[in-house]
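call fold(seq) -> tokens
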Amino acid sequence: MRRPLNPPTHGHPRAAGTPQAGRFCHRALRLPEVPHRQSGRCRLPKDPIRRPWWAQLGPGLITGAADDDPSGIATYSQAGAQYGYTVGWTILVTFPLMVGIQLASARIGRITGKGLTENFAKLCPRWLVMALVGLLVVANVINLGADLSAMGDAMSLAVGGPPGVYIVAFALLSLLLQVLLPYERYVRLLKWLTLSLLAYVGVGFAAQADWALALRSLVLPAMHWDRESTTMVVAILGTTISPYLFFWQAGQEAEEIRRIDADRPLAVAPEQ
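ret:
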């Protein structure tokens, strides 16, 4: 016979309907407690508050925009200049993979309220977690160097001057923004910066692209496979599905839960 989840209330100091009862049930079920972001104390579950769709935009939008990084733009530009529309078919492969990976990472962060590294630490041996984090650090450092180099070269082409100066300036600016700005303001800034992606629409019309040929190459690829073309396809796949995206998506989902009082991990509040 199953015992009721709620403890008896008669003669018990933690009677139903009191804050003590909520905390008692919360701990009896061994559910994770989310600390209040101001007081640091555990807060009781609240009814979910429905927010407008534009207020819910954040982790997925920023992660998707971050994937269009300078190194990716350089790779796509080189692929287009070298192979034209013949590599357009790769979007049929990269797009569903990108959506699936972002969705899986977002659900992990939203359900558990923790990032990927913390979840790995609970499920995997320590040596495996350290190896995965080490590989991520190496990949991120290489990707960061490629991004800064592309940004410096682009600025040098636009306004002149040595690229090294712009690389150092961009690196310092990025570091100061992350250190000095609070998380909420930094995320708001990143959300507004995603509007810069609308420039692609204008460039598409200004370039006078052959859309008929582009669509035909999308479904009927006519690519000659050799060592160089295979390397380019691998580069496109690698720059589109970068390792930091998985951790960023899950980590920002967890940060959003801590930022918004009404939100809790779905493992605690599946009704949300």
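The two ends are 30 Å apart (CA to CA).
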